[in-house]
Design brief:
This protein is of the alpha+beta class and about 180 residues long. Helix 6 runs antiparallel to helix 7, helix 6 runs parallel beside helix 8 and helix 8 packs antiparallel against helix 9. The longest helix is centred in the first third of the chain and has 15 residues. The chain has a 5-stranded mixed β-sheet with strand order 1-2-5-4-3. The chain has 2 domains: about 120 residues, Beta Polymerase, domain 2; about 55 residues, no CATH class.
Length: about 180
């Protein structure tokens, strides 16, 4: 069995047993919606809200090993918990609290990555939004691969990306995202 998928399932199963709202994002979601590529970790968004992050981080750290000595402090400061699944695979759990993140998790659907490994993943539109917002070179490549392979709801994408770009004071991200949605590079 693929160790990446095993790690994702293990962490997902833990969060599901806790009845925590979450979904797969990042490279695994790209495997579903875009051009398959290698990924070095499993990425999740976990809906924690603001102010209760520690209530989620502590049980996760009791079950999984942190990837750094100050994993809890790092998670509370940066809103991402870095852990290892029991097979040693790195897992990043982003703490979600914005309305977009809540909506993204609500819109997530299940996808079978391998026999018996069915995980809730963000939608293609939400993945495109997150990749455009992150705006690293590899993120733009991923966003483009999703736009080329999927018929995206452009109105939804732009409606949800616009306030994120305003929050980041980065209107150029919206311009570049629009160009990708229109098939321009």
């Amino acid at each position: 069995m693929n160790p990446l998928f095993e790690a994702a399932r293990e962490v997902c199963d833990f969060m599901t047993r806790k009845k925590w709202s979450h979904c797969v994002i990042g490279g695994l979601a790209v495997l579903r919606w875009g051009e398959p590529r290698n990924t070095q970790d499993v990425d999740f968004t976990l809906l924690t809200g603001f102010g209760s992050e520690e209530e989620f981080a502590r049980p996760l750290l009791a079950r999984f090993k942190g990837r750094n000595s100050d994993a809890l402090d790092f998670a509370l400061q940066h809103r991402v918990l870095l852990i290892h699944a029991s097979n040693g695979w790195p897992v990043d759990i982003s703490f979600g609290g914005f309305p977009f993140e809540e909506q993204m998790i609500e819109r997530a659907t299940f996808f079978e990555f391998a026999e018996g490994i069915c995980l809730a993943t963000c939608s293609a539109e939400d993945l495109f939004i997150m990749k455009a917002f992150a705006a690293r070179d590899k993120d733009w490549h991923d966003a483009e691969s999703v736009a080329l392979r999927r018929k995206l709801d452009k109105r939804y994408v732009l409606k949800n990306l616009r306030p994120l770009c305003e929050l980041k004071d980065a209107p150029d991200l919206l311009i570049r995202a629009k160009a990708l949605l229109e098939g321009k590079r």
